[in-house]
Each structure stands twice: as C-alpha cells, then as structure tokens.
Amino acid sequence: MEDKRTTPNEDIRTLLAKAGEGDRQAFKNIVSLYQQKVFLLAYSVLRNKEDALDVVQETFMRLYQKLDAYEKDRNFQAWLLQIAKNLSIDYFRKHHGRRREMESDKSVEELPVAAEDHWSNPESSELRQVISRNLERLGERQRLIFVMKHFNGLEYREIAQVLGISVGTVKSLHFKAVRNLKNWLSPQLGIQP
Known about the structure:
CATH superfamily of the largest domain: RNA polymerase sigma factor, region 2, helix turn helix motif
Strand content: under 5%
CATH class of the largest domain: Mainly Alpha
CATH architecture of the largest domain: Orthogonal Bundle
CATH topology of the largest domain: Rna Polymerase Sigma Factor, Chain: A
Number of domains: 2
C-alpha cells in the first residue's frame, strides 16, 4: 500500500497535483508554506489584521477552486500572490469606509502572524519597532513592493507580474522605498546618511 502522506518540503508542483486529486494534507501543506506570505501582502494593502486574515482565507478558498487553472510553467508563488493582491484590492474597495474606522495601529512586525523568527534576538525589538514605524510611512505601492521583495523574497520580475506593472517601475519604486527608509532611519539610528 502506497503512503499518501505529504511533507512541506515536497515540490510545489507535486503538492498541487496531489491537492488537485483531493489530497487534503497536500493542500494543508501548501497553505502552511504560503499563508504568511499571503498575510503580509494582504496586510500591506489593508493595514488591518482581521481584514488581512479574511483575505488569506478567501485566497486559499480561491486557490482550491482554481487548482486546475494553474499553468504548470508559471511561478506558483507569483500566481498565488496575484490572487491575494486582487482580493485585497477588492476587499479594500468594498470596505473602504469601515476600514478607515477600524484601521489597525499595529505595524506588520508587531503582529503575531508576522515572521517572528527573523526578529528572535531580544536586542532587535527596538530596531524592529523603528523599522516598522518607518515602513508605515511609505506610500502604498512602495510599501507593498518593499514587503514583497524583503519579506516574501520575490524577484523584481515576479513583483512586476503580481502588480501588473513593468520591472522598471518596480525597481524605481523599490529604490525610492529604500532611499526613503534610509533617510528616515539614519537619524533615528544615529547613522550618517
């Protein structure tokens, strides 16, 4: 009898194929591999933890419904984040008034779903707060690109694909985000610009 269990380290195409055949564990593994990245993207658009979690749930429901629509030669992560981005924007448009009233005052790094392992050193707590406050100051597109590049590890080409803009625009916005963060962080950290 063949062992049908899957592991999170399996190739994403293998997991997708198994999930498409009804393997629930394979789908759970896909969710566990990508839920944090989807959350960070949704939160960078919506700026509200509960709304972002709603979008994460909706993203994976859509993924399950569209498993057969995934083109095997496409970058899966970029495709999934495109779904998340579109759902985030739709959610924002639909709930814009309510969002203003309930907007979270917590930054991405202060949320428990965010990548705590990157900030496990207790000495980095103050640095994390300084960086988070300054990330919040970035314009929406700059913040989104910065999060996708530095938190989700996407390449410029993948970010361009997700956002539907040119690679040159992504590079330009990323450069501006980094420059802004450097200018804002330097005096706060006692570094000469």
